[in-house]
Amino acid sequence: MKRYRQFEPILISDFEVSKWQHPVHQHNHYEMIYIKKGSGIHVINQISIPYQAGDVFLLGPEEAHYFEIDKPSRFIYLKFTDLYLNKEENNTYEYIQNLEYLIKSRETHLSGFKLRADDRLTVELIFDLILSLKNNMLWNRELIWMQILTLSHILKRNMPELLHLETRSRDMQAIFCYIHKNIYLPDELRVNVMAKYFNITTDYMGPYFKRNAGTTLRAYIQHYRSALLKQRIASGKYSLKQIAAEFGLTDESHVSKIIQKANSDMSSN
Description:
Elements: E1 2-4, E2 10-17, E3 25-27, E4 30-44, E5 47-52, E6 56-59, E7 65-80, H1 82-85, H2 93-104, H3 117-133, H4 141-156, H5 172-182, H6 191-197, H7 202-213, H8 217-235, H9 240-246, H10 252-268
Parallel strand pairs: 1-3
Antiparallel strand pairs: 2-7, 4-5, 4-6, 4-7
């Protein structure tokens, strides 16, 4: 399978075609794809998903995809790497957390985001603004980044796990997404709180998760939190005190203990 490699932190691509030119492929970056016009089929990991104007897709390096075009289609691509996600200026915790959540939980929305009518209009305007900034990427770098963060906020609030209780799913992907969203809020990850959120009993929550995930709820949360903590430390941009505050931890020593325990658990497996 062909694999496209991108070395620039971010690229913007805008093109219109009546026939797709690329084979099924993967890439080493993330892609936020906006359908400006047209319709057809988006094949992601061998699953066929109809697309139309106004749809948005978020793909990661693991996804293999291509398009089958019915009506001439215009695509706008925002392609960014981990380097761009973790660049030095990214110091707005809340918005970075939104983007991290979307990237980690994208399995839920590989079929495309089902946006509300008002959000569809807003997203269209944002992509028009991004295109207006495209010709001078260096000069407009920060403005482009601000639009990506705004898009992540809009897309996140259209995730099915965050809708009203009557439409809330209880499947494992919904539970994973809940964990990813609340990893910065330890109190929201207590078993009794999660059980109430998903309308199941506290005693059933732990066994249900282990049976379907192959690991305990506590171990999964610890592993995911530890992975994020390591990314923060590796970036060299945050002190342990800042990291502890972001993740709702007691102090700097708590950060170190979590990472040490995760490393110990991995080495014992």
